[in-house]
Protein 1
Amino acid sequence: MAREIILGIDPGSRKTGYGVVLMEGRDPQYLGSGCIMMNTEESLAERLLLIFESVTSLVEQFHPTMMAIEEVFVSKNVQSTIKLAEARSAAMVAGAKQGLKVYEYTPMQIKQAVVGYGAAAKEQVQFMVTKILHLNGRPQADAADALACAICHAYTYKVSSALALNGLSQLGSSVRGRYRSWN
């Protein structure tokens, strides 16, 4: 796997987490993380614009080579699910407009890749992200989820790339089939 900078996004209409990792060699390295905080007094359209502009700014700041984003999970509250999907869309369009290939992962896939258990608690994800990236302290939950998404992609992409390089395209396509790519 060549030198890749991965921007991970944990979307939300109130708070969107982001995490940036460098994948060069064997282990991912921390480059940055945080949360895009929305003013809930503003209209949804204004919050979506903030997500779009903030992701655009992150791309300009970190120069990622690809973006990974958490898929929408369906909750009992339909309005919350729709708002989450809209926030995700704003982030995805910002990444795509900047020329990034956007990869999607389910929360279960992300937790499985980082913790080893698809139903892991947020605290377990925070703990493992801290250990994997050798951080001095735990990142906020949304930032940790975004970093976990980036780590998940780094591991998945690394495996599928290695399989393709070794001529195992049949096996590689089944690994790549676990995520969807939008370009």
Protein 2
Amino acid sequence: MTGASGTAQRAAFLDRDGVINIDHGYVSRWEDFEFVPGAIDAMCRLHDAGYALVVVTNQSGIARGMYTEQDFQTLTAQMCQHLAQQGAPVAGVFHCPHHPRGRLPAYALDCACRKPQPGLLLQAIDQLALAPTGSLLVGDKLSDLQAARAAGVRTAYLITGKDGEEEAATAGDIPPDGVFGSLADCIDALLGPAPESLQPTSSR
């Protein structure tokens, strides 16, 4: 976990890659980190609406030996600093470094924190004193939705730009509460369109 604890009673649990930043595949350096257009403004709106911003992310690249825990922590600190400067302070970042087929023995295991397991969300709920029933999750995979439901988070949205995935998601055993093209679209539907006076926030 990275970040300071808070006292907010509800949270917006956000997956990282594909929701906050463009998923280029195992992003581990700030120079390769690119925010999804509109994501920062959406996070600002969630914060202003009273949601604690909590990032919950699988990082199997650590288990695969593609980057280290320190690399992840360094990037996380840079991301959080940038978001705080833009008015979207992150209450916590919870990550899973494991993968059952990982190359590094210390991380090559089945765990309770890798989504779709609810461990990351349960850690956040406990450490940040959050109320899961008043919280929401936004992810880009069905495993995100499964983790939310297992942790008692009743509202979960799916972000996808892939043809046909909406039908697959809504036909599943754990359908999302909504399917959107981006975090910005999701938050517009949740909170209403952003005021026209709101200027786009820089992605870097």
